[in-house]
Amino acid sequence: MAENAEDLTVNYEEDGVLVVKEIDKEILTKGSWTTILFRYREFDRASGEYGPDKFTIRRYQKRSGQYQTKSKFNISSVAQAQKIVETLSRWFDDTK
Fold this sequence. Notes:
Layout (H helix, E strand, L loop, with lengths): L11 E3 L2 E13 L3 E12 L4 E2 L3 E10 L2 E10 L2 H17 L2
Antiparallel strand pairs: 1-2, 2-3, 3-4, 3-5, 5-6
């Protein structure tokens, strides 16, 4: 694991192939508990191409100078991500 939040990634390599490729990330909170929203794509071995964008929210806890994954939530599609955005926007509008 990483010592700095900026170094955390969802990139994952297997047998020399980058199976999960991080496209972007946004650090939502930083400190001993850090939350990061990642945008990524998964490699499809059958087609040899990366699939559509996916998203995951990861929570990390820093212990003994290293970040450790504590929880994650995968957003399975752009449609699901848009629904989350729409719902949060509506809820924020309701609080005004």
